Amino acid sequence: MKDLHSFGWYAGKIKPDLPNEAFDPVPARLWGGLAYLLVTIAGLLTIGLLSINPIFYLGISIILGCSFAALGFLGHEILHGTVVRKPWLRDFLGAIAFWPLTTGPRLWRKWHNLTHHVHTQHEEHDPDAWPTFEKLAKSRFLRWIYRLPLGIRAFFSFCSLSIQFSAHSMKMFTVYLKEFNPKKRPAVLIEAILPWMTWIGLLVWVGPFKWFFMFLLPLLIANLIVMGYISTNHRLNPTTEVNDPLANSLTVTVPKWVDFLHFNFSYHTEHHLFPGVSSKYYPLVKEQIKKRWPERYHEMPMGSALVALWKTPRLYYQQSELIDPSKGTLFGSLGNGLDPKNIQSKGLDTLDTLKAFQERKAK
60, 147, 212, 293: least surrounded by Cβ within 10 Å? Predict the structure, then answer.
């Protein structure tokens, strides 16, 4: 693996070439959020108050799911402090934006801002990092999962994208609640409960049939969109001891109109270099990165990244490789031999390693 540098090292070199206004909050981003909020309310009222052909409910559900996802992207930006700076207003607006995804602002900042961003792709400390080969021997469930052929695992993994964000958010709630100051835990609990009270209240009001189109299906669609990005953010990259965004993060490319609708969420390496800068300015950050370190920078079309995810396993081996225990084969990671256009695997390097692998698989 190439020499690694911290995100601060890169940011320090790029910052002088960015305009001063890039470091100011951009409250104008809220206009986009207002548009999505109005679309969401209109969609919910249309399904809730009108009795029309269910095919129209389906169309509205798709629009609602896209709006839920886009509000989540804006909420992510808001809670990084790049839209407004006042803490109470930041958390209030972030709570509204994340309401459909049922994630509270305090939990998100603890999990995402203070842990994931600080320990990105660290195999022990990043709550979003995928497991290592060493953890396989310690988990009967993982051993069962990774006995399945890669194609079957990939199929179910992609299907699970429709629930992964919500499921992981619930897991993070149980993990981090105890780490909050006891005086702040009631607020964290309220932020977690209130959105669900809203959606369960909606179920009581409209019944299960309409609720499916008003919340459940849109939530699945939103999960799928959000996880389409999140699954490509780091899962093809190596784990790293040093938090080097050019090594451990991937920027995907999508059509410009999609970037507009999704608040430039595709610029993920740029986000990890400057999480306190509005994504409005990430194209400028990208220009500076590619000017200085083009050989280190990882980007690819979203479709290519998803195909590469399908064809590679999600279990890390010695940080820079991905291992498929069902066959005992290795794949490179980005910057370490993985060519998304020609994905190749290889056998384990040594007899000792193979023996260790076989012994663990047999347990």
Answer: 147
